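User: Here's a chain of 64 residues. Predict its fold as tokens.
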Amino acid sequence: MKPINQYCPRSGKAVIPEALTVYKGFTVGFCNTGCRDDFAQNNKNNPNDCFYFDVLIKENKGAK
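Assistant: Prediction complete.
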């Protein structure tokens, strides 16, 4: 699946296909699998990542 973001919320680098996960029903991506795994296991401990994705989700819903 294609992620809703092109760039990693942590580094600003391009998202890679190996570093995708699902957040609130949307595919989201990171620049490496370490960041993806940390977020997937502890997204409540990563409020900045959640905020970034929540904004993108809101924008995507508005575009539909």
